[in-house]
Amino acid sequence: MQLPKAVTIKEVGPRDGLQNEKIVIPVEDKIAWINKLSHTGLPYIEVTSFVNPKWIPALADCYEVATSIERKEGVTYAALVPNQRGLEKALEANIDEISVFMSASESHNKQNINKTITETYPILEQVVREALAEGKSVRGYVSTVFGCPYEGHIEIDQVLKVSEKLFEMGISELSLGDTIGVANPRQVQNVLEQFLRVFPKERLALHFHDTRGLALANIYASLQMGITTFDSSLGGLGGCPYAPGASGNVATDDVNYMLKQMGIETNIDDEKLLEAAQYIEKPLNKKLMSHSLLVHSSNC
């Protein structure tokens, strides 16, 4: 079995990790945290989301965060953008990469975006077109690929249909989301078998939640299929406000540890990751529950 020699980890903690927290983190702490993340070796940080504050109050400071962080050369700073208005603010803040998102599930899409899938397409098409015209790269997210909290199983043909539409718009990479953490390794490989018949593996990423403790196993299954890009959130922060019961994203520190132990290069510093995780625990007023942090705390 041939595993990749190197993997890209994309940090989504400042956006996906904080969007579902009940405590609103002071803007200065967010900025300081992202600055710490920038010095860990992470090549990509999703710093915020330019959404209407009434939908996600925790990210109401998106513009201030995006314009106040210290940009480190070699790091891509991305943001989630739902519509034209959000794009205007993201471009004004000089975000490096624009992320657009939708669901493969009609019910989840309505809950998350307040629109049907068909109604969502033209909005995203405009965002992608204008972002590309401004010289920005665009990444796409598809949620509920492996299961929906409202509909259960989602047919792979429906997931492929949505994914093809996003690639037709001009996205450079697609992140496939296990939004409620229901995927298992065999299912992951079955889905990827279908996807890899249509799309090159270099343009796919996986975004796992650890609701049932299977996220690392699912990453390993993806590695076996040749996938080399994964989203994660430091300390396991995060969830989905429109997916009841969904726990945090797979922890960046745990993913990094597993990959390094397997001899797969990430270029990320373990100690600096743990320092950044411990920093954000104080404003969150809670301990992060990643395995790496728990082990580190017990050894201190």
UniProtKB/TrEMBL annotation:
Record flagged with keyword Phosphoprotein: no
InterPro entries on file: Aldolase_TIM (IPR013785), HMGL (IPR043594), PYR_CT (IPR000891)
Recorded GO MF terms: hydroxymethylglutaryl-CoA lyase activity; metal ion binding
Pfam family for this entry, one: HMGL-like
PROSITE patterns xref list: PYR_CT
GO BP annotations, alphabetical order: ketone body biosynthetic process; L-leucine catabolic process
Keywords, sorted A to Z: Lyase, Metal-binding
The Pyruvate carboxyltransferase domain, residue ranges: 7-274
Family, per entry: Belongs to the HMG-CoA lyase family.
PANTHER family, sorted: HYDROXYMETHYLGLUTARYL-COA LYASE
Name of the molecule in the record: Hydroxymethylglutaryl-CoA lyase
Annotated organism of origin: Anaerobacillus isosaccharinicus
